[in-house]
Amino acid sequence: MTKSPASAGPVAPEVLADLAAASHILAAQGVVDAMGHISLRHPDAQDRFLMSRAMPPALVTPADLVEFDMNGDACGGDTRSGFLERFIHSEVYTARADVMSVVHSHSPSVIPFGLCDKPMQAMFHNAAFVAAGVPVFDIRTKFGTTDMLICDCVRGGALAETLGDKNVALLRAHGSIAVGDTLQAAVFRAVYTEVNARIQHWALALASGGPLAALSPEEGLLADEPNQGAAARAWQLWRSNVRAKTNW
Amino acid sequence: MTKSPASAGPVAPEVLADLAAASHILAAQGVVDAMGHISLRHPDAQDRFLMSRAMPPALVTPADLVEFDMNGDACGGDTRSGFLERFIHSEVYTARADVMSVVHSHSPSVIPFGLCDKPMQAMFHNAAFVAAGVPVFDIRTKFGTTDMLICDCVRGGALAETLGDKNVALLRAHGSIAVGDTLQAAVFRAVYTEVNARIQHWALALASGGPLAALSPEEGLLADEPNQGAAARAWQLWRSNVRAKTNW
Amino acid sequence: MTKSPASAGPVAPEVLADLAAASHILAAQGVVDAMGHISLRHPDAQDRFLMSRAMPPALVTPADLVEFDMNGDACGGDTRSGFLERFIHSEVYTARADVMSVVHSHSPSVIPFGLCDKPMQAMFHNAAFVAAGVPVFDIRTKFGTTDMLICDCVRGGALAETLGDKNVALLRAHGSIAVGDTLQAAVFRAVYTEVNARIQHWALALASGGPLAALSPEEGLLADEPNQGAAARAWQLWRSNVRAKTNW
Amino acid sequence: MTKSPASAGPVAPEVLADLAAASHILAAQGVVDAMGHISLRHPDAQDRFLMSRAMPPALVTPADLVEFDMNGDACGGDTRSGFLERFIHSEVYTARADVMSVVHSHSPSVIPFGLCDKPMQAMFHNAAFVAAGVPVFDIRTKFGTTDMLICDCVRGGALAETLGDKNVALLRAHGSIAVGDTLQAAVFRAVYTEVNARIQHWALALASGGPLAALSPEEGLLADEPNQGAAARAWQLWRSNVRAKTNW
Q: How confident is the model at residue C3, as a pLDDT?
């Protein structure tokens, strides 16, 4: 049994409340159901992150948040069970110094894009971050026949490598991840990846083989700038909805 | 009039509450509407099962549960009307000693897979149990033109034979059944059969004739293992939602 | 100005409450939105029917119900405005002595079947009444370019003629009607016409040109029998949901 | 820094409440999510309009409404931030003296019609206003690669030119606008543009290449007349739902 790593220190209650609220937001927006998770890099330590113990996202409270190190070990002697797939988070934080928050989800509209060769495209400006491209991670390529889970550092590292410098990636026959340089940006991208997927299903059926005038990569770059303001407004709405239903 | 068979004895209140809650969960998840039912094998008797009287699943309370024997007769002198299709349950329990719970439903996204020759495939790890294959029961094959209902032991037995050792089966122009070795596993499979069906509709449209990188049977076997933990978390969420709305 | 016809006499409060509740049920089930209506033939007079004044179905109370005669005139001196399309109801009651209740709605999933040459088929036993065929009324055929509304006896009569002895009919670029020999049967058919339409959209896409093993007309006849019990259970659920939200 | 233009004077509280309620209605009907906006021309001044400060529509109260002039400048010294895209509104009001209210939204079902060459058609009488045609504004045509936003008078003017005398227009890879000669008409059109889009997706898939018997332009003209009554009834329902949840 490994010794628990030291904690990087306490985190402000409002930060913990926002992270717990983000779980509720993702559930309310249909991005996660009984499964899925979101994490936040520790505000004071590049090599620590916060994430709920293994539980349904819609039930998370600030007291359920656990600090992990980049090996996926719970810190400060915390003995609560983490998600099997916390290595998604630890390895993305390790590979991407700019990322402060990571979402993993299995939303039904997104999964199909990981199952066939139709790339996800940006259908509108709020999903501009999609225009840079959404890579697909197929666990079979490196690991053969598996239980599909990112349950250790090696698999997590391979996924992070596939993500590269992008902000969304698909996992074949599994789901997707979205990242951001703030908690709000990661939540916004997870939500609008799902919305964009729904629009693209309809758009491709409508076009029935013809071309789609999706955002070009250049339009995507320009349009993603004002999304920061949009994400702030969306957070304002979603956070207030959670506040109305919780006492933390 | 046949004499009512003896009861196999009382069942713990928390077991009855969980079974009643399972009806509410299936309704809340869109698996059943005003119709559909779930049963549990009697914890102390292999030849008895518990199931609500004929009523909408969203209204079931523990007091509505009736004990049946494997002929579909209510036990202990209970005179309340059972569902016409309780023989689905009795015959699956008879044929499958490993099954502790059976769900029958008509969820709209699932029915199409019983109407044409496109087999249901496992779109993601939470539906791994689908990867073993989902047989289709066509009542016409043995019984010709009928009212479509599994309303006696003979029809129930034929359905159980089609199910074989699988955990999900489709009924042509009718609906589906899902089974499990626990109440929680059956509920989980019923819910994720529906979710998987929705994903497959989108995925096949997206692929427009091209291949789908669905779970292979081998991946399905491996991925179904960790679903037990997932099912426990899902149950935790769904059960707590029912608890918040009921006083039992 | 025509003199208001005499009333056929008071109707039992519980019948009025059920009719008002039926409006709420159709709204809750997504069959009607801000538009659409349901009527009931007067229990004591073959030539009178009850229907709300022109208002959103989700707001109807028993006090909003008006008695009409078969010319669509409000009885007993009632001066409240009826729906422009009350002639759908009066003419179906005139043509069909067996019909006790009529629903008219514009549910989004149903409208497409009135816009192209793909006939609605019965996808499962709860929609067995569809297997007899669903005729399409195109107002252009007899009336040329119109405002699409069934706003007088002549147009209503033409629609009733198209309905014939069926229980559901489509109105091109408009919506549909469903009828029953009880209030509960009409509501059940309106709801399951909508559910069946959704299933058929998915099923046809899934079959992508191949055949659908829909209910045969013979299966439909047999399967519609037990739907009376199903409709009673559905009504029990839906009516109790309305009761929980109203004080009548 | 420009001087704030003078206000055209106070607006009746019930008008402000209706405008704030319209934001909530559009959110409740799924036309807007965390983004999108609705405005009303000032009842007493052709060259002023009212619109919320930049915030989620579901949170707007009458106190959040700001008066703008046709340059998009806040009047009466109001220093609150307006939406970047308020120029959609100012330029439509400038170009169209008959328009009293403008909605801008990104509803997922509508966006696809701006991404390919399938024109939106009127699927039923409540969407009769669509039968006149729905032009598509592609910002690339005049402005090349942009951030997609209508963030100044020049872009707003180009959009208003594309709208012409129609009541709905699409913005490529962005969303749509709907206008009306009353607040209620604009809301009604925004809602039924969304409903019509959903129906058309289903209808085109159902027809699979065959023709759709959509409303002809002539039918559309006739059918749009009674929609004023329909819009009044819809407003009655939607407004009462907002009233039940707010204290203004």
A: 84
